[in-house]
Design goal:
The chain is mainly α. It has 2 domains: 1-97; 98-157, no CATH class. Helix content is 61%, strand content 0%. It contains 9 helices and no strands. It has helices spanning 3-13, 20-35, 50-59, 65-70, 72-75, 87-94, 99-115, 119-130, 141-153. It is elongated, with a radius of gyration of 16 Å. It comes from Acinetobacter stercoris.
């Protein structure tokens, strides 16, 4: 894959609200590039543009589950700010993931957010874990307690 191909894929991902058929077509191009190892998915996950996040999030159902699982920690960077375009789409997608994949990924991501002292990221991860619509709080007891303690120690109410 040439540098121009990667630039073109990223340019398309930056477009404002790709039409669903264009998004699916791009997902097939990306899948082919991933299969022949001419592209690394993680190189596409860059929180530079809200549209890029949104388009990648919208593309998730058309990519392999294995690929998503391998890149879950990077995708959780989308929770650094729930106001980012695409973070709500990611939110809904992750709510349907296997808890055996999701729980350790959240644990690692919470540890990372605490390590870099990013209270907003911790806060937004906590919102997801405690969301009654998702109904997974019972699966995240330890992670929720870690987040609450971290926020409380910084005088942040949840």
């Amino acid at each position: 894959m040439t540098g121009n191909d990667i630039v073109e894929i990223k340019r398309l991902l930056d477009e404002d609200s790709l039409y669903i058929h264009s998004l699916i077509d791009l997902a097939f191009v990306i899948k082919k590039k991933l299969k022949d190892k001419s592209l690394e998915f993680s190189s596409l996950i860059e929180p530079k543009s809200g549209h890029q996040w949104e388009n990648i999030a919208m593309m998730l159902p058309y990519l392999s589950k294995k690929l998503i699982e391998e890149n879950i920690d990077r995708l959780l960077e989308g929770f650094m700010d729930l106001n980012w375009q695409g973070s709500r789409v990611l939110y809904a997608y992750l709510a349907e993931m296997d808890i055996e994949i999701l729980k350790p990924a959240f644990s690692r991501t919470i540890d990372q957010a605490i390590k870099i002292n990013d209270s907003e990221w911790v806060y937004f991860l906590l919102i997801f874990m405690k969301d009654e619509r998702i109904d997974l709080s019972h699966c995240f007891d330890a992670e929720i307690q870690d987040c609450l303690k971290y926020l409380q120690d910084r005088g942040i109410e949840f």
